[in-house]
Specification:
It contains four helices and four strands, in the order ββαββααα. The chain is of the alpha+beta class and 106 residues long. The protein has one domain: Alpha-Beta Plaits. It has a four-stranded antiparallel β-sheet. It is globular, with a radius of gyration of 15 Å.
């Protein structure tokens, strides 16, 4: 999986970077949201929970996927700014709920 950043924009109001990218996965299956987020986290030297993949759109028969992601400075900024369904889709909200349930069970 090769990733190319097409456009990167700093958004200081929301404490994040907004990134448009293309993933080249010729002769491979379409990468999942988690795999793409891990790759972006490595590229931008941040944690996986700070990366929210907003959209992924595969091109039929070409082996390329275009996408849009938001890379937050920290997890709290992501939780404050993002909608609940996007947090669930990216696996961030599930982690937050598990952390909240753990002390209640004791």
């Amino acid at each position: 999986m090769k990733m190319e950043i097409i456009c990167e924009r700093e958004n200081p109001l929301y404490n994040r970077k907004e990134v448009r990218f293309v993933v080249d996965h010729e002769r491979e299956s379409t990468p999942g949201r988690n795999a793409v987020a891990e790759e972006l986290a490595k590229k931008y030297n941040t944690q996986r929970v700070c990366v929210v993949i907003d959209e992924l759109a595969g091109e039929y028969g070409v082996g390329k996927t275009k996408g849009y992601a938001k890379i937050y400075a920290n997890k709290k900024a992501a939780l404050d700014c993002e909608e609940e369904h996007l947090l669930k889709r990216n696996g961030i909200a599930a982690e937050e709920k598990k952390e909240e349930e753990a002390p209640a069970a004791e």
